[in-house]
Amino acid sequence: MLRSLSAGARQYVLITGNYWAFTLTDGALRMLVVLYFHQLGYAPLQIALLFLFYELFGVITNLVGGWLGARLGLNRTMNLGLALQVVALSMLLVPTAWLTVPWVMAAQALSGIAKDLNKMSAKSAIKLLVPGHAEGSLYRWVALLTGSKNALKGAGFFLGGALLTVLGFTGAVAAMASVLALVWLASLLLLKQELGRARNKPKFRELFSKSRNINLLSAARLFLFGARDVWFVVALPVYLATAFGWDHWRVGGFLALWVIGYGMVQSLAPHLTGKRAGRVPGARAALAWVLPLAMMPALIALGLTAELNAHWLLPGGLLLFGVLFAINSSLHSYLIVSYASEDGVSLDVGFYYMANAMGRLMGTLLSGWVYQQAGLAACLWISSAMLVLAALFTMRLERDRALAGQA
Predict the structure, then answer these.
(1) Nearest to 59 by CA among 183, 221, 217
(2) Is the distance from CB of 349 to CB of 337 less than 8 angstroms?
(3) How high is the pLDDT of residue 250?
(4) Any idea where the domains of the chain sit in the sequence?
(5) How far is CA 107 from CA 33, 113, 319, 356, in A?
(6) Contact predicate 156/26, CB 8 Å
(7) What average pLDDT does the segment 327-356 reach?
(8) What is the mean pLDDT of residues 211-216?
(9) Helix (H) or strand (E) holding 107
(10) Is pLDDT larger for residue 229 or for residue 130?
């Protein structure tokens, strides 16, 4: 079947397959760690801290990984990401007594490096596989890759819970490591050599983007993802468990379904933002979609303060937030690939996702601290303020290029 496709389409299928396999193990590993350490008696905030290095090393990896991709080729950085994830999983196959907090944090650090190498490579490679004039196709391909990744991450939450039940923690980790090792070997053989290697080797001091649009879009992305994680990562699961009395299976299942739905909306974003009418969205569309998103956390916070029925308010508000956030995220993912320079594309994409990782790290830390100090409503107000900042940076993007009708 692959042989009947064009060379570019074959590479896209291989890259997407790599990304999918990695994402399933990434989501499953997160749920395995959460559920297993919950069983061991860890408090929710202690469990969240296990992922601190995962987010912190994502910041560093995106910055340095973009430079490595431009110098070595995206095939090598993608394969390195797959190999590191196998190592991270293997670190968790030690006896239970060895699974101390520092050891698990170290494994999560490796997993964070692996995840962002894989993501940066996949997003950057699409830029090189789509003709320069075909912005509409680029948007569709980016939206499909991004949306399917998040849907599969949600499926990974379910997979992690199921594997833990059927195989136990060690058996589940061993099974994932074995399958991913086979994917890595196939990728070594099939993925195109030299993909994404810059013609002029970038120097290390060139890590930081010199493009005004990319700098502004990166700042907007930082606050966009900080606004999500400041209430989603720790505050929301703890609130659902304490205020609603949900057990961890119900909390995990609800969040998994939210992530799957979020990914599906991301995949449909081109149809929701004007592609059917022959328009490819730009800076104006990004601003138009972030403004209503900024209102959602504030409205939910007002409802909680007014003591409206939280059992309806919170899931309903989260649903609307997820739809708007998914479209914003998909638009951003397309714009960064569109704005990036073809020669050394991974430098621009890596810098941008470094800002994304900084936003996640900031949101994760604030989520635990603010919720502990002031509750969920305070997290929501901070989320809304961050989205206003994202809108302000989006407003400063250069006016849209004439992209109508490009397919």
Answers:
(1) 221
(2) yes
(3) 79
(4) 2-395
(5) 11, 10, 33, 21
(6) yes
(7) 77
(8) 83
(9) helix 101-129
(10) 229
Residue the block writes with tokens 């409205």: 299
- With cut-offs at 50, 70 and 90, classify the pLDDT of residue 341: low
- How far is Cα 148 from Cα 142, in angstroms, rounded to an integer? 10
Nearest to 201 by CA among 70, 61, 73: 70
Q: Does residue 336 contact residue 225 with C-beta atoms inside 8 Å?
A: no
Average pLDDT over residues 80-84: 91
- The predicted pLDDT at position 402 comes to 39
Please enumerate in sequence order all residues whose Cβ is within 8 A of that of 191, keeping only pairs 6 or more positions apart, or say none. 11, 14, 15, 18, 75, 78, 79
The type of residue at 26 is D
Least confident of 194-203, 238-247, 348-357: 194-203
Q: How confident is the model at residue 407 (pLDDT cuts 50, 70, 90)?
A: very low
Q: State the fold for domain 2-395.
A: Growth Hormone; Chain: A; (1.20.1250)
Q: Please compute Rg for the chain using Cα positions.
A: 20
SS3 192: coil
Q: Using one digit for the tens of pLDDT, what is the confidence trace for 363-375?
A: 988 887 888 888 9
Kindly state the DSSP code that residue 246 receives in the 8-state scheme. -
Whether 37 and 311 have beta carbons less than 8 Å apart is answered as no
Query: How big is the chain, counted in residues?
Result: 407
For residue 107, give every residue at least 6 positions away whose Cβ sits within 8 Å of its Cβ, in sequence order, or none.
88, 89, 91, 92
Q: Is the dihedral of CA 348, 351, 357, 359 positive or negative?
A: negative
Q: What is the pLDDT of residues 236-271, one digit of tens each?
A: 888 887 888 887 667 777 888 888 888 888 888 877
Phi then psi for residue 41, to 5 deg, are 100, 10
CA distance 333 to 341: 15
Measure the CA dihedral 340/343/345/346, to 10°: -150
Helices (H), 130-211: 135-190
Angle between helices 310-339 and 101-129 (to 10 degrees): 50
Tokens of 293: 């998103």
Distance CA 24, CA 27 (A): 5
Q: d(Cα 325, Cα 172) in Å, to the nearest integer?
A: 32
Dihedral, CA of residue 257, residue 259, residue 260 and residue 262, to nearest 10: 120
